[in-house]
Amino acid sequence: MGHRSIIEPFRIKCVEPIRMTTRVQRRNFLEEAAYNPFLLHADHVLIDLLTDSGTGAMSAEQWASIMRGDESYAGGRSYYRLLDVIQSIFGFRYVLPTHQGRAAERILFSSMCKPGDVVPNNTHFDTTRANIEETGAQAVDLPTAEGRLPAAIHPFKGNMDVDALETVIAQVGADRVPLVVLTVTNNSGGGQPVSMANIRAVRAVCNRHRIPLYIDACRFAENSWFIREREEGYAGKTPREVARELFSYADGCTMSAKKDGLVNIGGFLACNDEALVKRESRLLILTEGFPTYGGLAGRDLEAMATGLEEVLHEDYLHYRIASTAYLGDHLTRIGVPIVQPPGGHAIYIDAAAMLPQVPARLFPGQALVAELYLEGGIRAVEIGTVMFGSTDAQTGEETVAAMELVRLAIPRRVYTQSHIDYVCEVLSDVFARRDRIAGLRMVWQAPPLRHFTARFQPA
Ligand code: F0G
């Protein structure tokens, strides 16, 4: 059986048409969108790899869950089912549903952080960083040395640099580090996994300094699969057992269920600290909703509970990780420089390596995103200086990001192998004319999270 294709472990019951556009139309749409993929109409996109967040297909079982949702304002059955599922996978006592991950982040960080604090993470996602900075605290990224090198092959490039963590704590003092966060998988660092050994080592540092450890759990199932496949001692375990162990080292987690919850909207905040959850519930009630629904409908809670169970199925994870690797391996064969090895939810093209003629201040990643859309109607996203850099208001100097990446994120259970083959063909054509691709100038921006609305013109 080893030589046979790893197939999509589902058949398709409901389809949604996608439409091709002409190059002339795409040129106009791109100009109207000021070269920002977030400003395109989704109807004008053929293959949408902007994000894997909230873009997955639900299963028949999840749609059935939607009908079973209990819409009671308080104490709904769907909440208690979700609580059961989360307790059995994540092991945390208290669970606050939120409408998505960043709502959980806002509530967590505004409950735990104050001005002058420092929050270390392997790599903060953009909303995580923004929510920490909103409280006046500082968000610090501590990836390992190999995690910063796109071409380096390492099984756990998502790890945190444990020595750097010790150094930060020694410099600022443990009382100014209200929590440490580990993002699994490390999204901004290439969708790379964190090893169980690294999680244990970070936990040990946190224990020594009495600092709580939180997991940003968006892609916990994909990370658990990588641990099982790559880390000594885990081959015989189920993904659920791996996940259980992973969360046993943490004091709590934030979750965007739009990823490994297999739903289009939803998230939660979980922990074991009763006093903290009381403070968090106050904030939840202010802006999200009563603690047994937290800004979601009962049916959303029900679909999330079913999704969290399904995402740990072995045939699903096997297919999921293999299909991402399929795209990555194909691009590598063509010669396209990508972050190696392929991550869990996305392939990250190293735009700085592919377009060496475009300096970081002219946004090589954004320029490549524009070309992919023009060439084949594919929507990708820049993860580089547009997303993480900033412009000095006085001098106009650009602070550039450590890496200039373009992410091709794969929605869960949405595209088939022929869609992905098409993506490879388009990339191959863009790659062939890479020398002639020029940069873009940012002509308008609104920080924070400027990438959502920034406007560009060809340089
Ligand atoms: N943490 C990580 C690691 C994420 O990737 C995201 C979202 C969030 C937190 C926030 O969750 O969107 O539900 O509020 N990532 C999406 C992406 C948007 O495209 O990678 P959210």
Word description of this protein:
By secondary structure, the chain is of the alpha/beta class. Helix content is 40%, strand content 13%. It folds into two domains: 23-52 and 313-458, Alpha-Beta Complex (Aspartate Aminotransferase, domain 1), CATH 3.90.1150; 60-310, Type I PLP-dependent aspartate aminotransferase-like (Major domain) (Aspartate Aminotransferase, domain 2). It has helices at 23-32, 60-68, 77-90, 101-112, 126-134, 162-172, 196-209, 220-230, 239-248, 274-287, 298-310, 314-334, 351-354, 364-376, 385-388, 417-432; strands spanning 47-48, 94-98, 118-121, 138-141, 180-183, 213-216, 252-256, 267-271, 346-350, 378-379, 381-383, 390-391, 398-399, 405-409, 440-444, 455-458. A five-stranded mixed sheet has the order 2-8-7-6-5, with helices on both faces. The chain has a three-stranded antiparallel sheet with strand order 9-14-11. Strands 1-10 form a two-stranded parallel ribbon. α7 (196-209) links the parallel β5 (180-183) and β6 (213-216). α14 crosses α16. Bound molecules: ligand F0G.
